[in-house]
Amino acid sequence: MAVAARTNGAPVIPGALRFFFEGGGAKVFARSTDVDPELWRVTFGAGPKGFEYYQLIEETVGMGFAYRYLVLFDSDERAIALQPLILVDQDLAASINGHIGGAIKFVRTRAPRFMQARMLMAGCLVGEGKLGVISGVDPNFASTLLARALRFFAQAEDVSMIAIKDFPVHLRQELGPLTRGGYTRIDGFPSLYLDLDFASVDDYMRERLTRVTRKSLRRKLKKTAAVVPPIQLEVLTDCSDVIDEIYPLYLNVVERSEVRFEVFTKEYFLEAGRRMPGRFRYFIWRRAGKAVAFCFCTIWGETIYDNDIGLDYDAAYDLSLYYLTFHDILDWALKHRLRVYETAPFNYDAKLHLRLKLVPLDLYVRHTTPLFNLMLKFIAPLFAPAKSDPALRKYYRANNSA
């Protein structure tokens, strides 16, 4: 379904599955390729996750997810924004641990669907979300239409829960219409970053780390460097020849994760390098020819994004492989004149000790039933994802009391 062009240059959305409401309307597309390429370009074309990336996700990570693409338009039927969507059967207790988590697991022995719901999510399956607003359009107007459109679409799909996933906190003003429209904002899992404003990894350890952390990290790295045969690093832009070695390492980490949302397929890692040459790097650490660790990274501008890790747990702890991967990626990034290191959520205890900084992310949630939505405003903050991690709780307590 193509988007025709008006004489003034603004695209018009042809009719099919459409929703109309005060101030404008929306159309939901089933595939990323159904959306006008020009609309993709002017909304998501300035970052690492544009049309090609969303198409990659759609075509390689399908198990359990259905993808849709919401185009918002004004009262003159001019497209003003694009928002990727995800339909998923979500475990609402996925981030809940401790006594409450144990109680939920006990209840599920008798009621397997307890705290599970079909959910409509706005955002990216992986990492930070973004509302792709066309330049010159008021973001608050676009957010107002988004809040309305999501409710219409959720009702059409018989979905009870709506979430706007992992939007940066600096967008709170632009997304203000969501909270005014009945959405509850809670703290999501923050991502982390490190400014690479030092000359070497040794400088980083000396200038940034505490004496205790620095001493511990150097001891680990020294022990690892002394192993025989030594561990060697290779960096590839295509993983076709090594996918059968590195994918089991990735699954090792996934299977041990307490919080699991998406599980990438072999095709995801393969197609990423093929479709977007030069954008991704596959870091592989070998010992005696055997792959023992793997990291999948994105390069965009002056930033390296450490997306996914894989480990051989028969060697991971003795060889301090997690810390070795961190050290070697920093070293590689510095040699290639990159200025920022970013990494995905989780493993917060280690990352905070390494002095990475948090990037707070917001999660907006809404129930389609008014009574349940009123209850959600009181209940949801108690189960915010960020409150489920002990290291995050400790970090926030320390900073709030400072």
Can you characterise this structure?
The N terminus is likely disordered. The longest helix has 18 residues. The protein is built from 13 helices and 18 strands. It has 2 domains: 229 residues, 3-Layer(aba) Sandwich (Aminopeptidase), CATH 3.40.630; 167 residues, Gcn5-related N-acetyltransferase (GNAT) (Aminopeptidase), CATH 3.40.630.30. The chain is globular. Strand 5 and strand 6 form a beta hairpin. The chain is an alpha+beta fold and 402 residues long.
Number of strands: 18
The count of domains is: 2
Which class best fits the helix and strand makeup? alpha+beta
Percent strand equals 25-35%
Number of helices: 13
Q: Mean pLDDT, nearest integer? A: 88
Biggest sheet character: 9 strands, mixed
Please give the share of residues in helix. 25-40%
Which geometry do the CA atoms define?
globular
Query: What's the Cα radius of gyration?
Result: 22 Å
The low-confidence parts are 1-15
The CATH homologous superfamily of the largest domain corresponds to Gcn5-related N-acetyltransferase (GNAT)
What fold name goes in the CATH topology slot of the largest domain? Aminopeptidase
In CATH terms, what is the architecture of the largest domain? Answer: 3-Layer(aba) Sandwich
Please identify the oligomeric state. single chain
In whole angstroms, the N-to-C terminal distance is: 55 Å
CATH top-level class of the largest domain: Alpha Beta
